[in-house]
Amino acid sequence: MDDDTHLNALVGDRSWFLAGSVIIITTRNKSILDKVEARPMYQVNELHSDQSLILFSRHALRMDSPPTEYEVISRDIVSTTRGLPLTLEIIGSFLCGKTKEAWKATSRKLEKVPHKKVQEKLRISYDALDLEDQHIFLDIACFFIGSSNQYPTYMWDACDFYPGKGIEVLSLLSLIKIDNNGKLLMHDQLRDMGREIVRLENEKKPGKRSRLWNYDDAVEVLGSNKVRIFSTCLSWCM
Known about the structure:
Blueprint lengths: L3 H8 L18 H6 L13 H12 L7 H14 L3 H11 L4 H12 L6 H10 L3 H14 L5 H9 L4 H10 L4 E2 L5 E2 L2 H12 L15 H9 L8 H6 L1
Antiparallel strand pairs: 1-2
């Protein structure tokens, strides 16, 4: 969690818990843990090179280690991810079934991206999607995380986005997950990447963006009578 209000709702009063209770909190914001004096704290470090190669190979090759002819290129790609599990999973899933030339091209592209710019590495998979699948990904990132996958399917189907195919593609590329209850899930970094893609459609004028998910932005646009469209998907249906 990255929001104080969520933490307060969970552990706002320690009297809610019996002695010996263990509460595990995961966050990217250490200050949240400091405020509640959480102890002990454990920092999740990047994977070692051997662990990274195993994780990458499982997604890219469906095995724990690459065959001899793919070992060098696999290690080259793994070295660019800096041991970040999500990046390894996304890039590995993207390369699964691709030709060796595609692997080499992806490796060259990854080498050009500074190590700290994780979203740019993750975007390689997004950029390779069909337009319809990109719309589905952005809709999920902005609106439907935690929702039943059936709920937006009717809209996507009406827009000729072929959601059955799209959701399968996004799942295979590890861009989304679907839990046992059929709810759409997405990693925070992928969610942030999707929302940043939409924000960059027009940085200064929210009303010019294809989607509005932020309450303040929506109120501003509605109040100024500058409503153009809230979803590119919906525009296709109108």
